[in-house]
Each structure stands twice: as structure tokens, then as C-alpha cells.
Amino acid sequence: MFVHSESLAQSLSQILSSDRYTLHVTGSESEFFDFLEQYKQQLDCLVLQDDGSLLPVINRLLEQGTLLPVVIFPKEIERTAHRATTHHLLKTIQITENSPPSQDDYLFHAAEVQLGVTQSPEIGEFIEKAIAQFLSLSTASSLPEPSAAVDPTAELATRSFLIQQQRRLSEKLKERLGYLGVYYKRNPQLFLRHLSQNDRQKLLENLKLEYREIVLKYFSQEDNLNQKIDNFVDKAFFADISVSRIVEIHMELMEEFSKQLKLEGRNEEVLLDYRLTLIDVIAHLGEMYRRSIPREL
């Protein structure tokens, strides 16, 4: 929670003091982003207050590709025309309903929930609504106009983070409610085969660097290795990258390592162990593609 009103913060803290919630209150923008950087993979919902200074916070969240369920207490006065600087980011995110809200109706993304201060006693219900709507959020809308070009790698990272959060939240709901999960749509304009030559090369180089880090840490005790694999697989999934392309990345990396080991006079047979890394990543990617197929098909 990041609100500037002390009375509102105290009121919400009391309402959300039950065992059902784990609440962390931040009093400054720096504290908010420090906490977010450390725990954003575990957060279920943000509670924000717009007192006229929220837009820079939202801009920063969008620039970082951080999309989470959110409940917002907007300014009590009517909002003026706004958010021209983030128009190209916000327009790529639409709620999957027949009549998606207009961009001028929301501050952060189309799945946000807004409420007045007088409705704060009902904050629990609004949090539930924010999470439910977030599970229907899709980034499958059209990309921005060329004049507002978005880095494909950054766009894929945003989509990757969104699908990770949706997956995590749907799993929590599945444990509690028997929730069947959600299906995710991809934007064909971000498929590897549809990118320009430069963007395609940039994406493949980025994936190769990420895969290299996975290989180097695979047999270590690093706690976030699975997260690194998930990040890599999600990006590959959104770019519609084939398993054979992943194998190529693996073989190119093994060849580089082999040359280095030969120069150092070391045995290159150790590289055979990293076939396990390839199998692990391919299994994750295969599961992503399997789950993306609608059941009715």
C-alpha cells in the first residue's frame, strides 16, 4: 500500500489487519519502489492513492514493465486530460470484455479498480475484484504506431511479467476455489518471424544471454534459478520461438564453451551434463505451448 493520507492508511491497516492479509505500508515513493523491487514477484495487489502525484509513480511502473492488480483511490476532483507520455504503453493493454474501458477511464491499466475514500470499509471486496479483473487482462491488442516505437524486448518482458503474475494468482485461486486457470493470447506482431532483422537479432542475442546465465547457474544452489527459466521460457513463448531454435541457442553456447575449455586445456566432456538444462527448458516451453491451446480445440 502506498497512500499519502495518514488517516486513510490507518483506516485501511485496521480493516486489513485480519490473518487473511499480509499488508505492507510504504510512506514514500523510494520506499515503495525498494519494496516492490524486492517482493514484486510475491505481491497479489497494490493499493494506491492519487493525490496529484501518482502519475510519475505509474509511469515508472509501466517503464519497468510491472503490471499487478491494483486498487486506486483517485482524486476527488474530476481528472483533466492526461497521460500523453504513457499513451503508447497504455493502449497496448485492454481488458478482454465486449466493451473495454476507454483509456481516459483508468490511470494504470484497464483492469484497475477505483473507489472513493468513503468506500474504504469495503476494500476487501475491491481487492478481490481487482485480482479477478487482472486475470482477464490481455496484452494481445495492437502494437503502438511506428512513431511511438516500443522496444520489442521490453514489450516481451512486460508481457512475460504479466503472464507470470496471472499464472501465480490463478494457481492461488485454484488451491482455494478450484479455479480452472486462464488462457493467454499472444500478439503475432511480436513473433520472431514478424520482427525486423535488427529486432530479430536483438531478441535472439538477449535470449542467448539469458540462457547462458541459466547454464552457468544450473548446478548451483541459486534460489531464483526456476524464476530465470520461467522468464526465459515466457519470452520464447510470446515470440513464438520453436524448440529447434532453443536447441540452436544451446548448441551455439556449448560450442563456445567447448572452445574455451580447449584453450584452457580442460576436458570438455563436462558439457554433456548441460543436456539436462536443455531438457528442463524444453519441458517448460512445451508445457507453455500445451496450455495455450484452448480446451475446445
From TrEMBL:
Domain KaiA C-terminal stretches: 187-295
The keyword Lyase is annotated on this UniProt entry: no
PROSITE patterns: KAIA_C (PS51431), KAIA_N (PS51430)
Keyword Transmembrane set for record: no
SUPFAM superfamilies the UniProt entry points to: CheY-like, KaiA/RbsU domain
InterPro entries, sorted: CheY-like_superfamily (IPR011006), Circadian_clock_KaiA (IPR011648), Circadian_clock_KaiA_N (IPR020844), Circadian_clock_protein_KaiA_C (IPR020856), KaiA/RbsU_helical_domain_sf (IPR017944)
Domain KaiA N-terminal per the UniProt entry, residue ranges: 1-177
Alphabetical keyword list: Biological rhythms
A Pfam family per the record: KaiA_N
SMART domains, A to Z: KaiA
GO BP annotations, alphabetical order: circadian rhythm
Official protein name in the record: Circadian clock oscillator protein KaiA
Organism for this UniProt entry: Symplocastrum torsivum CPER-KK1
